[in-house]
Amino acid sequence: SKISVVHCFYFRGGAELLFDGVKKHQVTLPCQPEPWDIRNLLKWIKENLLKERPELFMQGESVRPGILVLINEADWELMGELDYKLQDQDNVLFISTLHGG
Amino acid sequence: DRPSARSHPRTCMKCGQGTAALVIRVGDPFCRGCFREYFVHKFRAMLGKNRVIFPGEKVLLAVSGGPASSAMVRQVQEGLSREAAKRLRFVPGLVYVEEGAVRRQSPEQREQTLAQMETLLQATGFPYHMIHLEEALELPPSILQPGPERSGPSSPSYKEAVDSFIQQQRQDGDSGTSLPGHGTQDTPAGPSATPCLPDAAQTQELLRSFEAAGTATAREELLQMLRTHLIVQTARDRGYAKVMTGESLTRVAVKLLTNLSLGRGAFLAVDTGFTDQRHGDVMVVRPMRDYTAKEIAFYNHFFGVPTVIVPPLFTKRREKPSIHQLVERFLLGLQEEFPSTISTVYRTGEKLSPEPAKASSESQRCLLCLCGLDIDGGEWGGHWG
Fold it and tell me: Looking at the partner chain, which of B1, B23, B309 has a beta carbon nearest the beta carbon of A13?
């Protein structure tokens, strides 16, 4: 479909420090032929939202160990992690459990 | 490379009905309701199993604003409010150490953090104490020695204490452990209610000490030591014989391997165990050590536990990471591929028990960490000549 989808991304637990301290981001992802799964979403976040030190948020194609991901208030481990396909209005929350640095 | 995406059934394994909200341990999906019960039960079981908190006694909760200590405060609140039979029966106070000076916060940011923390502490209704890390510069030398232990033939066993508490309650007509009506700022009276920042000179002196620490590792250790000393001194000054700190399972596992790397292998039990009695008259208790960082983060999110996040300890440009950071990265990274890593480290640590105190005089204790000097070598001593 050619309709863009709107999402809210939240960053907590210190993760927000990597995004200018902004905890909530409301985003319209651009249309593209590839599906918007979490894998592609992370690439997009790295290029468009992450303000500093990408290695503190990401490792390889996934989030850095210690960063929790919730999709619509549920553990992403229940949803297929990186393979989960974003639906319209889905929100994704990233909580850092790391102790700084 | 991550292993292939984990995907678990979406029904709670405990009640078989609720929609699973998170995966606990290795592959156990729980719904929100069952998770809450699991979380709350674990706290009570931890205290019940270990039986070191006597009913009616004052316990100082060390709060950092971080997720684990905030979850700990919530568990204490939950526990105190339960119906009489299962109610927790101690008298909590809170202590917060403001560390903005060494976390590169401006005075305005420090005041903002203090204001947020004060709101949080006040909302609990417990007496609270807010102190600055700079106050470590004024600690008495007595902090470098254990205080006199209270145990002796006259002090009751846990069971005796519980029995006498219940008897007393019956006599009093069970008015219950009453909480103060609202949070009380438990410091000497001053003109303003909000704690103000320390002298710039004191902040400078503190920063000098931290800058003098040659490595990020040493700096981290210095921070932990000063914080502990301040908390123990507060406990002593205010008549608390017990302190609760919020180290999570994840943090305990990291601390275990970090301390091993730092040459503190002999003291792993006291550094990471449930109880830490090195200070003598003040016992430190770690009731959150059975909770993973993930469980705590989910609990706080689902049930609205407030936290105040502060920046990390400052680092110098081009400085190598601390051993603490490296160990954390190592363990969390390994955990991705091998999801039992952290719990295995933790359970190995559980098997360690503290050596009975051998130090018969002060000269045999480390001044800074109060542990007995490990000069004996134990049974291996003879082998190394």
Answer: B309
